[in-house]
Amino acid sequence: MYNYGIAIHGGAGTISKSLMSEEKEKTYVEALTKARDAGYAILRGGGSSIDAVVASVSSLEDCPLFNAGKGAVFNAEGSHELDASIMSGKALDAGAVAAVQGVKNPIQLAKLVMVHSDHILLMGEGALKFAKPYNVAMENAEYFHDDHRFNQWQRMKGSDDFQLDHSDKPKQYLGTVGAVALDSHGDLAAATSTGGMTNKKFGRIGDSPIIGAGTYANNNTCAISCTGSGEYLMKGVTAYDISCMMEYGGMSLYDASHQSINTHLLKLGGDGGVVGIDRKGNIVMPFNCEGMYRASKNRNASNVLIYKV
Questions:
Q1: Is this structure's pTM higher than 0.85?
Q2: What is the three-class DSSP state of 102?
Q3: For 184-202, what is each residue's pLDDT tens digit?
Q4: Which of 87, 101, 110, 168 has the highest CB neighbour count under 10 A?
């Protein structure tokens, strides 16, 4: 049996321990634990890595603490445009949606695209039309409203500034949720979901729904989910960059992920991090900024972390 396991993230960025209350930190830890364990329970029961990452990401999407689903940030028009993607390492199947509105769990719609269409990425109204026959859960605008996110938007409304949810500094684009898993059958999977940037304009789409940039899985190497500065993660094709260094350069997941995040991404000027797991069950969670909400679990160990250790 493979050393099945899971790792999740809830965004990276300017996460200062000095500004985090004990009560707020406890709330984040509880939410991360719940999401991680939702996926791990599926793996422990012999379920697939695909179902595990969907369960974990759906839990994060349902929690207003994170910039995805219910906790998504406001765009320049005062609405929510959601992106998500998923990939199976077994046959390199993938599905993604971008700039969708009203979808309760975008990651579940991304899975439907992967399973029931000949396409990988659907966007906007087209993605919603595709969703109709599958009875995808939808919510009105009030469901996605969060006072903290709304106040973030009010500070930038009408300006050219933008930011993500884990930073109070404009033009720091750090946020997103994701999960990676290896199941007992040896199959890898990765999933990523985001609300994007506060006050984003022009239908902006980041790395999260882009296979190879924000999400990648290959049974020969690893599964990766990224969070951080989306434009730079796209420039660096970060998720595939890590897999590529493993496949063609013979590097370990640890070395490849740290080189990609702490050398390649930094050279481009980008901030962020990844969670990753390889075909042997090794887990990594590197980041090059102040903090990253993250958690992992396998048969040998489990953790929930926020700051650098």
A1: yes
A2: coil
A3: 999 999 999 999 888 788 8
A4: 110
